[in-house]
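Hi everyone, sorry if this is the wrong subforum. Our group has a chain we'd like a structural model of before ordering constructs, and none of us has done structure prediction before. Sequence below.
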Amino acid sequence: MQVSWTRLPGRYVDGSSFVLKRPDYSVADWGYGPPGKGLMISPRLAPQLAGVGLLEAIPAAEILANAELQARRGDAIHGEPNWVWDVEARARMVGRFGWKANVASLAHQTAAAFRSDMGITSRLFPQETCTPTQKDCLAAPSGGDGEPEIPDERLADVILYQALLAPAARRFDVDRRELKRGQVLFEQAQCAQCHRPSYVTGAPPFPSLSSPSVQGQRIWPYTDLLLHDMGPALADGRPDGSASGRQWKTPPLWGLGLLKGVNGHTRLLHDGRADGVAEAVLWHGGEANGSREFFRAMSAQDRRALQRFVESL
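Answer:
Right subforum, don't worry. Here is the predicted structure as tokens:
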């Protein structure tokens, strides 16, 4: 993969400047010859795993209620669910994982990752993903039909492990008045319309792959789990399920302030183009144009307060 960066200078209303950087990706030295016609490439940062079992336990009715409430507002904000096929349920479910909410359950996501990322088949995905030109892949040992490479018990253990990864507690290591001011500004900028603060969890979709402990908890993930048109600047042109090439799922904000300590960087958004909260907000477009412009018109002190609030979640 090759990456080049285009600098995009801009200014806040108070006259101070900022520079956004847009990444452009290309591929050199294809390993198996030229790609097929219509290949679409969209880079991704790996979303955090902490709290995914709680997100899975948010009732689907709550996600659909988010969409209904936004539709009644009559303004630019109108999220949509991504209805996707789930291999564990063998039915369509509301998507909630992935940058475009293209996966509905941890079972589906885990088994798909074993197969697609590691070449390990399971009862949910019994077939390899080798293409005809990938001779080494085709010749590699395989469990074959009816004999998955990962047993059901081990797959269930990995799913359960993820389901019980707790999100971090909120941080209060900065001025409390600044946090309160940041929360007020977060709400005034309409950020909370998409980054819904709180839910009470219900039962997990597959109880045998989770734990009763995830049910009935008040959680604060700051997401509506819906798709939103984020404008042409963030569009990747790659549809996924019912998501268009301009739509992205609202990512949860909990734990965001720990990113640098855990990963050694502060890169945000689907392809890591934003360095920190401020740049992430400035990339918002489409349905979030108003929120971005509200942020751009803030004083430097207020921008810092909003950023500190988000980093404390």
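For your construct planning: The longest strand covers residues 2-11. DSSP finds eleven helices and ten strands in the chain.
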